[in-house]
Write a structure and sequence with these properties.
mainly alpha, 3-stranded antiparallel beta sheet, two-stranded antiparallel ribbon, 4% strand
């Protein structure tokens, strides 16, 4: 454990126990304020539309006190599912002005894509955590009719990834843009992004009008993000020649772990509604084996992303490499090694794990996904630890509660001081705090 994290560990014991009722009420207020009537926005300022994996996490937090909203959250998102099965990372609200967010619907031009829905959306995806969310919503507020309605849509989402996003033929699902990872600005993407030509932005960035520029991706990063999205859009959002026509094709451990965990959750859903869980269980086992074979680095005791264009592993200590702990079939010895890494390099005894391990050359404690701690990755680790190391899971849950009680429902946090960064009243920070409170 690094010295700053050791110091943080000594401070956590002196933090006063949060007023749980007040924290719960504050989280409900945030989620109520971010509810639009059909779905939630991650924040009213920086993110004024519906985001894919945000909605999954938000639905989990809604389920304990507003289960009908939780179900509507997911069903509204899947109403914008493309005919090929992809679930877009943004569903644009027609009531929000174009200039409120960039890149907006005029940039993505989803209406020109043959498989797109009527709703205006982006053309890329995000980690498929939605089956996990649907099952969690049902556990908290049982409703088989909801499961029967969303199950085929979740299956179609997985089928899209399975048939369109496995270009290397090795069983790994690929992302074609850093935004698809959910961890947009991770140092893990620096090497493959460096090969992407950057051109000056023609549009003004809206994000840095709401958040300090030193907490957001650089202009150079944004230029490359826009270049990748433009090329994918201009190619009709096709996936048939990924390795020949795309400049960024990466197998991400978080994304693949979410895919595998979704199959395990779909097995539970299928069994609950009278379906056959076996195909889902077999797929979950298969992707776990493939991830261990292709992405686990025994020297680093961590899963690494792999650049599928070069075949190279990307040797970056990202918290994404710990997320395979959510896979039910992960071998026990691999899980133990990941847990050791989580303790020694990511300091989970001290609080929320940083998004990138301290001491790395690209570490920045306040810049988006390059060091700050996030509630959603902590929640995923908590989810993975509950059946493996209950005492660590409890410690991580208490850290989520203490951080949000101390600094509010911020987008992300300094991993040493817990100072909040990014936007205020962030949806999944409130929602997942509620979920760990409900599980106490």
């Amino acid at each position: 454990m690094t010295a700053p994290l050791r110091a943080q560990a000594s401070r956590t014991a002196t933090v006063a126990a949060p007023a749980i009722d007040d924290l719960r009420e504050a989280a409900v207020r945030v989620l109520s304020a971010n509810w639009t009537g059909t779905h939630s926005v991650p924040s009213r300022t920086l993110y004024p539309h519906q985001w894919s994996w945000d909605s999954a996490f938000i639905a989990i937090g809604l389920a304990g006190w507003a289960p009908e909203r939780a179900r509507r959250e997911l069903l509204t998102l899947f109403d914008a599912q493309w005919r090929d099965g992809r679930v877009p990372h943004i569903v644009f609200s027609p009531s929000v002005p174009e200039e409120a967010y960039f890149p907006g619907p005029a940039f993505w031009r989803s209406h020109e894509a043959p498989a797109a829905p009527r709703a205006a959306t982006s053309g890329i995806v995000q980690p498929p955590v939605h089956a996990l969310a649907a099952w969690r919503v049902h556990q908290l507020a049982p409703d088989r009719a909801f499961l029967r309605e969303i199950y085929p849509r979740l299956v179609a989402q997985q089928e899209y990834l399975r048939t369109h996003r496995r270009p290397a033929g090795d069983g790994l699902v690929a992302i074609v843009h850093p935004w698809e990872s959910g961890m947009d600005n991770s140092p893990a993407w620096d090497e493959p992004l460096a090969a992407v030509p950057a051109e000056p932005l023609r549009e003004r960035r809206r994000d840095i009008t709401h958040v300090a520029p030193d907490e957001r991706p650089t202009d150079l990063d944004y230029q490359r993000y826009v270049a990748l999205a433009t090329a994918y859009r201009d190619g009709g959002y096709r996936d048939d020649r990924l390795l020949d026509e795309h400049a960024f094709v990466v197998a991400d451990p978080l994304f693949n772990a979410a895919y595998g965990a979704a199959e395990a959750a779909l097995a539970d859903i299928a069994a609950e509604i009278g379906g056959d869980p076996c195909p889902h269980l077999e797929e979950a086992e298969a992707v776990t084996r493939t991830m261990v074979d292709r992405l686990f680095d025994p020297a680093r005791n961590l899963f690494l992303a792999r650049d599928l264009l070069t075949g190279k592993a990307l040797p970056v200590d990202s918290v994404a490499g710990l997320i395979p702990l959510i896979l039910p079939d992960l071998p026990g010895d691999i899980a133990d090694r990941l847990i050791d890494t989580a303790v020694t390099r990511f300091g989970i005894y001290a609080g929320l794990p940083p998004s990138y391990a301290p001491g790395g050359p690209a570490f920045e404690r306040a810049r988006y996904w390059r060091g700050p701690a996030w509630v959603n990755t902590a929640w995923l680790l908590w989810h993975g630890l509950r059946q493996r190391r209950a005492e660590l899971a409890t410690l991580l849950a208490e850290s989520i509660i203490r951080v949000t009680a101390t600094s509010g429902f911020r987008e992300y946090f300094d991993p040493f001081t817990w100072e909040g960064h990014g936007c205020h009243d962030f949806g999944w920070s409130a929602a997942l705090t509620l979920d760990v409170l409900d599980a106490r």
